[in-house]
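Dear H.,

Thanks for agreeing to be a second pair of eyes. The structure we're designing against is below in token form, covering all 381 positions.
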């Protein structure tokens, strides 16, 4: 059962979305980043929900964050901004950052005064993250970074980047280090346009050509980067699952409203057996996904290992969101095929959920390794 603070946060998010939805639609159509909406989310405390108050956050718990993601999940571009800022950037900073690093970056990120990005994926290193080619060479009290990243959320709008680079290529995954890099260090970026969904969320390429980073901006320890990446992705997968739950909830709500209004053969289609089958399956996928998500979150909050549960939640919820979005289109019939109806956007937005932060195939390998004790691939080679 949710505590009052969670319910208040949900209500606040709903009011915000009622006001933001028309503007967001325009940003989606233009593939433009919704800066005014992001600033408003920062003012409302949405970008630092679980960050301690003394570091500029709202000081709420992880379940409050999930409640917010559920409410925002039907508006995936905005949900993506929340997830990247908190799951992929603030979480590792709070976990591995020094006190100096936290004081420098966390308040700015939590208040939304700057945005952050998680720089792991490369043109030749997607699911096989350990094969990344970005290098970091030690030069006195600095590191020199050379390489490039792709498919980076917030790539063109971030001021702070978590960049993963190899400091010792001979050690494989154990030779990867995470760096806190600022745009003013010389980072160049380029937008990636033409996405199927998440059209108001920024995605770009990041170029590191001789970028100099002080050694004080190593996050964690040298060689600890791959472990930081994996633990961060575990949290990210829970947040994606919560967002998927929200997307399913929005699709179901729109479908229920439609079937009560749409009439065929002299009566509302809500009374048709096969329409009710669609709705029942949508509800089942929604609730099963929510339970898996909260199971993973509960283990995380208790400090127990939760990699398996995070993968289970991410795999099921992301695939379920695609099934639910498909059914929403089917329920709407020909109307659902047009952008005038919101379910068309939900269908497009759902597709990315099975791809980023670990594809469905990768999640199955993680789950399989936990079940058998045998890895289908060696991420630490």
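And this is the sequence the design step returned. I haven't edited it by hand at all.
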């Amino acid at each position: 059962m949710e505590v009052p603070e969670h319910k208040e946060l949900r209500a606040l998010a709903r009011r915000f979305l009622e006001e933001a939805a028309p503007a967001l639609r325009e940003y989606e159509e233009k593939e433009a980043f919704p800066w005014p909406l992001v600033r408003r989310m920062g003012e409302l405390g949405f970008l630092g929900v679980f960050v301690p108050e003394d570091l500029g956050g709202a000081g709420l718990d992880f379940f409050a964050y999930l409640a917010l993601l559920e409410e925002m999940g039907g508006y995936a571009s905005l949900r993506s901004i929340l997830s990247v800022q908190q799951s992929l950037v603030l979480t590792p900073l709070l976990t591995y950052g020094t006190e100096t690093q936290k004081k420098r970056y966390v308040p700015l990120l939590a208040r939304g005064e700057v945005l952050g990005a998680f720089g792991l994926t490369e043109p030749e290193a997607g699911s096989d993250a350990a094969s990344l080619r970005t290098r970091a060479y030690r030069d006195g009290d600095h590191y020199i970074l050379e390489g490039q990243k792709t498919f980076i959320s917030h790539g063109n709008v971030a001021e702070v980047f978590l960049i993963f680079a190899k400091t010792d290529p001979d050690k494989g995954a154990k030779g990867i280090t995470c760096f806190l890099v600022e745009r003013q260090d010389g980072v160049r970026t380029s937008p990636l346009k033409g996405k199927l969904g998440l059209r108001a969320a920024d995605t770009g390429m990041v170029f590191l050509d001789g970028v100099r980073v002080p050694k004080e901006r190593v996050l964690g320890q040298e060689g600890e980067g791959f472990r930081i990446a994996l633990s961060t992705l575990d949290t990210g997968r829970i947040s994606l699952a919560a967002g998927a739950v929200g997307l399913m909830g929005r699709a179901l709500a729109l479908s229920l409203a439609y079937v009560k209004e749409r009439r065929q053969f002299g009566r509302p289609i809500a009374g048709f057996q096969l329409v009710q089958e669609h709705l029942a399956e949508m509800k089942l996928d929604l609730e099963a996904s929510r339970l898996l998500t909260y199971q993973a979150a509960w283990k995380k909050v208790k400090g127990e290992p939760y990699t398996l549960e995070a993968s289970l939640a991410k795999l099921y919820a992301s695939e379920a969101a695609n099934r639910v979005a498909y059914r929403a289109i089917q329920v709407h019939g020909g109307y659902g095929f047009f952008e005038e109806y919101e379910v068309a956007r939900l269908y497009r937005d759902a597709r990315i959920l099975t791809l980023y932060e670990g594809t469905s195939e990768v999640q199955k390998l993680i789950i399989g390794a936990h079940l058998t004790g045998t890895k289908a691939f060696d991420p630490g080679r």
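Two observations from my side: The mean pLDDT is 96. The chain has ten helices and ten strands.

Warmly,
E.
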